[in-house]
Every structure is written in structure tokens, then in C-alpha cells.
Design goal:
The structure is a single chain. The protein has 144 residues and is α+β, with helices and mostly antiparallel strands. 44% of the residues lie in helices and 17% in strands. The two termini are 29 Å apart.
């Protein structure tokens, strides 16, 4: 799916949920859509300043919070970075394969892993409300 299709899909999700996809939110969405891996908030801020010179850290964090709340992006906790989710039209378990060399991130959706984690958590009286699993290593290009 290309960037324009993703933007159209995001606008539709916002319309369906009664949320405002403001110009700043769309610009941050587009910046993330152009990336293959995770990107930090301050790197996004520097890119946003090209078209929005007055943008401040609060500007980027508000946009990222909005995009995260609607499920448009994932936060990669281990690297404090963000990435676009191409499957934001439905809630799903997430497993991320993160290359420690080039930074490329692959997003997986294994219901088997999710189910097993939920079962193990339930055995301990724990209810999982959100699930993102991060695995670090080397991608196919970097492992040689």
C-alpha cells in the first residue's frame, strides 16, 4: 500500500471514530509512512521543521500520542522509536523483529504467540491488555 492509500485509510478511520486528522498529524503520519524502520521523536521533529519551522517537541509528541491512540503507529520501547503500522484498521497482537545493525523493523502478527502469552499470563492471574513483543538481532541483509 502506498503512502496516499495509507493516508486515505487513516482519514477514513478518523472519520469513523470522530477524530480529527489535522494537518500536523497527517504530516507526521506521512513522515513515518516514508520510513522502513523506527524513527525517534526528535528526528521526526527535525523533519517536520522543514515544513513547520515553529514545531516544538510538544508538537511532535502530541501528534505521536494521537497516532498511537488510534493504532496508526507502534512505539518500539527498546529503542524509544516509532513506526507506522500498516494494519491499523484492526487491533492485533504485534511482534517486532528489530535489526540491531541497520535498524530495519519487520512487524509480525502471530496469533499463536499471542495466544500462548495470554494463556501463560492467565495462569498467573494476569490479564494482558496490550501486547507488543520485541526481538533484536540481524536482518537477512545484515546477517552475512
Amino acid at each position: 500500500m502506498n503512502v496516499e492509500q495509507l493516508v486515505d485509510k487513516a482519514k477514513q478511520v478518523c472519520d469513523n471514530r470522530g477524530a480529527r486528522f489535522t494537518a500536523i498529524r497527517e504530516k507526521v503520519f506521512r513522515l513515518l509512512a516514508a520510513k522502513q524502520g523506527g524513527v525517534g521523536a526528535y528526528d521526526l521533529l527535525e523533519e517536520l521543521k522543514v515544513s513547520e519551522p515553529g514545531a516544538k517537541p510538544a508538537t511532535i509528541y502530541r501528534a505521536l500520542d494521537f497516532l498511537s491512540e488510534l493504532g496508526f503507529i507502534h512505539k518500539i520501547e527498546s529503542t524509544n522509536a516509532f513506526m507506522l503500522c500498516h494494519h491499523f484498521d484492526h487491533i492485533h497482537p504485534v511482534q517486532l523483529l528489530i535489526c540491531d545493525d541497520c535498524g530495519h523493523v519487520d512487524e509480525l502478527h502471530s496469533s499463536l504467540i499471542s495466544h500462548e502469552l495470554n494463556n501463560l499470563a492467565s495462569e498467573r492471574g494476569f490479564q494482558v491488555s496490550n501486547q507488543t513483543i520485541e526481538a533484536h538481532g540481524k536482518c537477512e541483509k545484515c546477517k552475512d
